[in-house]
UniProtKB/TrEMBL annotation:
GO terms for molecular function: ABC-type vitamin B12 transporter activity; threonine-phosphate decarboxylase activity. The chain crosses the membrane at residues 6-24, 54-77, 156-175, 295-314. Converts cobyric acid to cobinamide by the addition of aminopropanol on the F carboxylic group. It is a multi-pass membrane protein. This is Cobalamin biosynthesis protein CobD. InterPro entries: Cobalamin_biosynth_CobD/CbiB. NCBIfam families: cobal_cbiB. It comes from the Bacteria. It is found in: Cell membrane. It comes from Duganella guangzhouensis. Belongs to the CobD/CbiB family. GO terms for biological process: cobalamin biosynthetic process.
Length: 319
C-alpha cells in the first residue's frame, strides 16, 4: 500500500474512524473541509476570469489540492512512531468521512414528511440539494433526499474508505478535496463550464472504481434474489443514460435495490431538467429515505467487515 500501513492496521483504523464519525459527528467549528471550501471559493474568484479558463481551472485545482495533500503526507512522515502515525491517519479519515452527516441531514426530512410538515421538509431538503424545492411534492422531496444519500454514500463514505486503503489519511484527504472541488466547480453553468471542467474530470477518475464497488455493494445488499437481480439490471440498463459516469451506476443500482423509482424531472435554477429514470418499482415516499439510509449504513458495515476479514486472512496466511 502507498500509505506504508499493513492491511490489518488499515482495517482497524477504518473501524475506529467510522465509529468516531458516528459518535462525534462533524465538528461544529473549524472543520477542515469548511476551511477548504472557503479556499476554493477564493481561488475561483481569483482565477475564473479572462481567457484560458480551462487552464486557469487546472492551476486553481493544483494550488488547492496538492500543497495540502503534501502537507498531510509530510505530517504523517514526520511523526514516525507507530502510535502517533496511527492517530494522524485516523483523524484525517474522520475529518474526511461524512456518514453521520448524511444521517443527520436526511432523516429529519423523512420525519417532517411523516408529520406532513411540507414547509419544513422543503426547507430541510433545500440544504442538501441544488434543485428548487419551493413547491416540491413528497415524491419529489423523497427523490432528492434518497438520491443524495445514495450518491453521497459513495462520495462521503465509500470512496473515502477506498482511497484510505490506498493512501492512508493523505489518500482520504486527497479524495475528499477533489470531490469537494467537483461539487463546487463542476456545474455546467456559463460561469463554471470551462473553469470547473478539470475538477469534474479529475473527480470522475478518482471515483471510477469506488463508484462501481459501491454499486456492486448495493446489488449484494438488495433484499432477496429478485431484488439483487433488479438492482443489477437497473445498473446495467440505466447508468449509461445518466450524465455522470459515476453517479449513474451508484444511484441506479441503489434505486433498484430499494425497489423505488428515482430520477425524472427536477427544477434547477428555475428550469425543468428532464433526467432519466432510475430504479424500478413504486413511487418513492418519505419512508424510502429511511430505507436509503439503512442501505448506506449496511454497505458501510459490509465494507468494514470485508476489510477486517481480509486482514485476518492475510495475517493467517503469513503466520
Amino acid at each position: 500500500m502507498l500509505s506504508g500501513l499493513s492491511f490489518s492496521t488499515v482495517a482497524v483504523l477504518m473501524v475506529a474512524a467510522v465509529l468516531l464519525d458516528l459518535w462525534w459527528g462533524e465538528v461544529r467549528r473549524w472543520h477542515p473541509l469548511v476551511g477548504f471550501g472557503n479556499l476554493a471559493m477564493a481561488l475561483e474568484r481569483r482565477f475564473n476570469q479572462g481567457s484560458l479558463r480551462f487552464a486557469r481551472g487546472v492551476l486553481a485545482w493544483t494550488l488547492a489540492v496538492l500543497p495540502l495533500t503534501a502537507l498531510a503526507a509530510l505530517l504523517v512522515w514526520t511523526l514516525r512512531l507507530p502510535l502517533p502515525q496511527a492517530v494522524a491517519h485516523t483523524v484525517m479519515l474522520y475529518f474526511a468521512l461524512g456518514l453521520r452527516s448524511l444521517r443527520d441531514h436526511n432523516l429529519p426530512i423523512a420525519d417532517a414528511l411523516a408529520q406532513n410538515d411540507m414547509p419544513n421538509a422543503r426547507r430541510l431538503t433545500s440544504y442538501i440539494v441544488s434543485r428548487d424545492t419551493t413547491s416540491a411534492s413528497e415524491i419529489e422531496l423523497t427523490k432528492a433526499s434518497a438520491e443524495s444519500l445514495l450518491e453521497n454514500g459513495n462520495d462521503a463514505v465509500f470512496g473515502t474508505l477506498f482511497w484510505f486503503m490506498i493512501g492512508g489519511g493523505p489518500g482520504a484527504v486527497l479524495f475528499r478535496m477533489a470531490n469537494t472541488l467537483d461539487a463546487m466547480w463542476g456545474y455546467r453553468t456559463p460561469r463554471l463550464l470551462q473553469f470547473g471542467c478539470a475538477a469534474a474530470r479529475i473527480d470522475d477518475a478518482f471515483n471510477y472504481l469506488p463508484a462501481r464497488l459501491t454499486a456492486l455493494s448495493y446489488v449484494l445488499l438488495a433484499p432477496g434474489l429478485q431484488g439483487k437481480r433488479r438492482a443489477w439490471q437497473c445498473w446495467r440498463a440505466q447508468a449509461p443514460a445518466w450524465d455522470s459516469p459515476n453517479a449513474g451506476p451508484v444511484m441506479s443500482s441503489g434505486a433498484g435495490a430499494l425497489g423505488v423509482e428515482l430520477g425524472g424531472a427536477a427544477v434547477y435554477h428555475g428550469e425543468i431538467e428532464y433526467r432519466p429514470t432510475l430504479g424500478a418499482g413504486k413511487p418513492a415516499t418519505g419512508i424510502d429515505i429511511n430505507r436509503a439510509w439503512r442501505l448506506v449504513a449496511r454497505t458501510t458495515a459490509l465494507w468494514l467487515a470485508l476489510a477486517c476479514g481480509a486482514a485476518v486472512l492475510l495475517e493467517y496466511t503469513h503466520a
